[in-house]
Design brief:
Layout lengths: L1 E2 L2 H9 L4 E3 L1 E8 L5 E5 L5 E3 L17 E3 L8 H15 L4 H12 L2
Antiparallel strand pairs: 1-6, 2-3, 2-6, 3-4, 4-5
Helix pairs in contact: 2-3
């Protein structure tokens, strides 16, 4: 499911959904003081979900697209389709991370 607004993203995170930013390498989280952050799952670095409040960037998201995807739920129809597409793209010569990014964009528009 594609998310397009700051409020949609925050609501999904608050409901316990796994929200990604751009690719499955970046997950949106809410920290223990209530900030919404984009976390890189590879190196544990963080960036704010959007620009600082009170600035011209407060309504600007810090990633190009956001989506909910639960690839850990075995048997989920989207998981099977996503995994199949990643495998096909890898066979075409894409790296795993590039294949995942393409699959995310195709299935989570």
């Amino acid at each position: 499911m594609k998310l397009t607004t700051i409020q949609e993203i925050k609501t999904a995170v608050d409901k316990g959904e796994t929200v990604f930013a751009g690719t499955t390498a970046y997950q949106v989280i809410r920290d223990n003081i209530g900030q919404y952050l984009i976390k890189c799952l590879f190196n544990n670095t963080y960036i704010a979900l959007h620009g600082r409040e009170g600035t011209p960037y407060e309504n600007k998201l810090n990633a190009s697209h956001f989506f909910v995807l639960d690839p850990c739920q075995v048997g989920h129809p989207l998981f099977n389709e996503w995994e199949r597409l990643v495998s096909l793209l890898e066979q075409e010569g894409l790296t795993r991370s590039d294949a995942q990014a393409v699959a995310d964009m195709e299935l989570c528009r």
